[in-house]
Amino acid sequence: MSDAPVLERGSRRGLLTLAAVTLGSGIALLDQSIVGIALPSIGRDLDADLAGLQWVTNGYVLTLASFILVGGGLGDRYGRRRVYLIGMVWFALASLACALSRDIGWLVLARVLQGCGAALLTPGALAIIQGSFHPRDRPWAIGTWAGVSGVATAAGPFIGGWILEHLTWHWIFALNVPLCAAVVAIALAVVPESRDEVSQGRFDLAGAGTTAVVLGTLTWLLTTGPDATGPTAAVVGLVALVAAIAFVLVERRAARPLVPFWLFGSRVFSAANLMTFLVYGALGSLMFIIVIQLQTSSGWSPLASGLATLPVTVLLLLLSPRVAELAARTGPRLPMSLGPMVCAAGVLVLSKVGPGTQWPLVGLGMTVFALGLVTLVSPLTTAVLAAAPDRMAGAASGINNALARTGTLLAVAAIPPFVGLSGEDYRDPAALTDGYRLATFVIAGLLVAGGTVSWFGLRGART
Description:
By secondary structure, the chain is an all-alpha fold. The chain contains 16 helices and no strands.
């Protein structure tokens, strides 16, 4: 339920509302990907090892994944516009703290706080679209949001490369502050308020706490655990197990759970979210490792490494709204099954990146990968929201975003040690190349698994 007006595609307020939520969530997604291009520079400047660089990425994604369900639930209950604006202001202040960092510990802490702000604003964007736009215009609005969000993710390395070419890595974070201010100004002027009028009872703080403990301990085990002593790793593993059991028990008994398990009674909702976990884990891992490989092993500059993602940016921007409208007519099963397979083919082309690699190989791999990505992104978002009642838009969006970030978090934490990369290996071209090539095969496998889940799980999905 909502007290918001029904916004239409061609109205001034509808266009400005879409601009506000798209730009705001795009900033959060951009920040997740833009940092990757700067990791070698950050490592040299702050004298960090590979685990420290992983935490620069994972500290942000950890709190984003842990509290994004909280953000969705708070928006449904207290107002999606209100929580979205709080998240934007929080994100801007944390970005400023990142820009002022002078050691790796400070930067990781600031990234953790930045992820909290992103967790408040990210689910609100989709929930505002679902709760405010006329049903006939939602596929177009979601497609536009998904396209720009994909562009923000893909354009991060390019924008970061340009900044590193002309300024320092600190400006990657400082850039967020004026952008967030612009979003807040637009949202205050035009974005309507909406909420789930059925939300009652105490907020599920226990669910939020156990989620954070589960993800935090798992991330530590995957990132730092291999170098820890046996007893320490065992204790942390036990904590993760107990917290996971507690989370399930808490959510089953809560009057208003962060994760309404009954939503997963929909086969389509379950399949789409499992596919999200696999595909976004692959996407996050690829963007984390390829920019390091291009700079360390292939000798590319940060700007050249960023330009390598240009095909992804262009194709997502041009094609996502059209793919969303097409999938709304035909159903999501085919694009969500075919897209990950095409992405996997692109990753296998990119597995050849190494010493002496030139632009044609990288451009071909990125173009194939982009065609697969644009095929799956918009239909995925539409399928998740269509499988849940409108009043649960915030919860459904929060669950889907949480699984996307959790997939990225765990994959970025797990794949480097799994393929034998640790310590200072990111500075050694030979060691990095061996690990990188094995990592691309793992990433391609995750994508194939995601496409398979979609094919068998999305039969009969709503158009």
